Amino acid sequence: MYRVLYRKYRPRVFADVIGQPQVTATLKNELVSGRLAHAYLFTGSRGTGKTTCSKILAKAVNCLSPVNGDPCGECEICRGIDNGSIMDVVEIDAASNNGVDDIRMLREEADFTPANAKYRVYIIDEVHMLSIGAFNALLKTLEEPPAHVIFILATTEVHKLPATILSRCQRFDFHRIPPQDIAARLDFVCQQENCTIDENAALLIAGIADGAMRDSLSLLDQAMGQTDHITEEIVRRTAGLADKSSILDIIGCIISKDTAGAINIIDELHKSSKDMARLSDELIEQFRAMMLIKAMKQPRSVLVMSEADFDRTAQQAEQMKLPFIIGAIDLLQSAHDRMLHGVNRRIEMEMSAVRLCSGSLSDSSALEERISALESTVASLRSEPSLFVKEEPAKKPSQVSMPPVKRPSPEEMENLRKNAVPMTQWQDVIDDIKKYSKAVAMGFEGSKAYISGKYVLVDSQNDLCFELLRKPAQRDKMRDSIRRVTGKEYKLGRYSYPDEAKPDDPLLQLVSDLKAGGVPVEEVNK
Asked: What is the pLDDT of residue 404?
């Protein structure tokens, strides 16, 4: 009869256990030295080797010819435990045997000496499912166990165990298996099964399994039923995933605000029977990758994807701001939760796409963000009164003057604007300003800059930054920051003419109108 891969390739010795050296090395040392505990607790997520190590440990403590802490696998005890003829090793599923009577029966059996083996070993899987009464019944045996009994408790939810149980067990934490280790194991299994697997396909299986070797082997088993050469496309079709290019194309539509394009891609995926909840999950993973690229200096070691996918993801991440990426993750997670509660999944996915393409992550998030930024700026300026403009007549936003330096002529300004290119290091300049004043740097948040000849032209909808640049000391500090970042000396200018029309900003318009109406600066700040 055919045996599934995760059973066929279950490790027989500790050396075969993948990705858990912190557990296997300690257990082997204890077995070699004879320092055996009476109760072990194995914790960790599914498919990381808890039950496998439990069975290896049960065989190792009873093996007639152990080899450096590993069971030999050949003696009658090892073979008897494997085929189930040795009754001294008992596996109990606490999910279905969780009552007080079940544990009382176990206590009564534990008093009897082993029939064939040296130790009577009880492996209690999913031990967190035991009732309170069952835990209390087990506690007495764990506190004063017979010399011939060893308990091995396994659980995925260790926080549900009483502290009295935890304190009487030797605890081992099983980690999620690294994707590279899973991929290497999958390649080994394929070689044994006369099959081949692409590296990208193995890494994709590892990413889907989320650190669980059993899940990886199950998905590999399913893919091997289709072909003897497993590619990334085969894995995606087997797992019901959208192809990577579709995910990246949806992200591209979001960047270009192409709502129709995103809806068309979703429509094609829906027609090909792709689950919308799974699509939402994949988009969340992609935005997560972009978030890590924006937030980390070396994100490559954390992200499991091909080099080509990583390069394209990095390019897309450069075109998005980190707050938007985080807001997109939050939006998609909320949509995913609603999908699981019975709403129309396709409509929910389309609504999310429309919001992402329009930049409207929520009805009030944009307004709340601007209000919060304005409040923070005002609070910071209050803490540094020297930044306020003193004894200066208020001007409308369209009439804010440039710093008192020699202005280029209109013809020169037009040439500067035509030759201007975006300054990619502008955010680094703002970060440098933060080193001496976070309040000043906050006034330049959201602004852009362009380089044209010897000029850095500042473009912003927030006239606060131009108010700051009117101060000679602040202008000098800005030029110093630009010189530290770029290594070059630049003059400062404004990208747009003072009388040029600007996008409406109700909050800034309100502040400007109050100033223009003669309201003192102190009252406006209140």
From this structure: 47
**H/E run at residue 233:** helix 232-239
CA-based torsion, 293, 298, 301, 305: positive or negative: positive
Q: Which fold has domain 392-516?
A: GMP Synthetase; Chain A, domain 3 (3.30.300)
Which among 463, 472, 474, 465 is positioned nearest to 395, based on CA atoms? 463
Contacting residues for 139 by C-beta, under 8 A, at least 6 apart: 162, 164, 165, 168
pLDDT tens track for 118-163: 999 999 999 999 989 889 888 888 888 888 999 999 999 999 999 9
pTM listed for this prediction: 0.61
Each residue of 160-205: pLDDT tens digit? 999 999 999 999 999 999 988 999 999 999 999 999 999 889 988 9
Q: Return the closest-CA partner of residue 15 out of 30, 32, 27.
A: 27
Give the residues of the chain that fall short of pLDDT 50. Answer: 363, 386-405, 497-503, 524
Mapping DSSP to helix (H, G, I), strand (E, B) and coil, where does residue 63 land? coil
Cα(322)–Cα(293) distance, rounded to whole angstroms? Answer: 10
5-174, CATH topology level: Rossmann fold (3.40.50)
CATH of 244-358, one of 1.10.10.10, 1.20.272.10, 3.90.850.10, 3.10.20.30: 1.20.272.10
Domain ranges of the chain: 5-174, 179-239, 244-358, 392-516
Radius of gyration of the chain (CA): 33
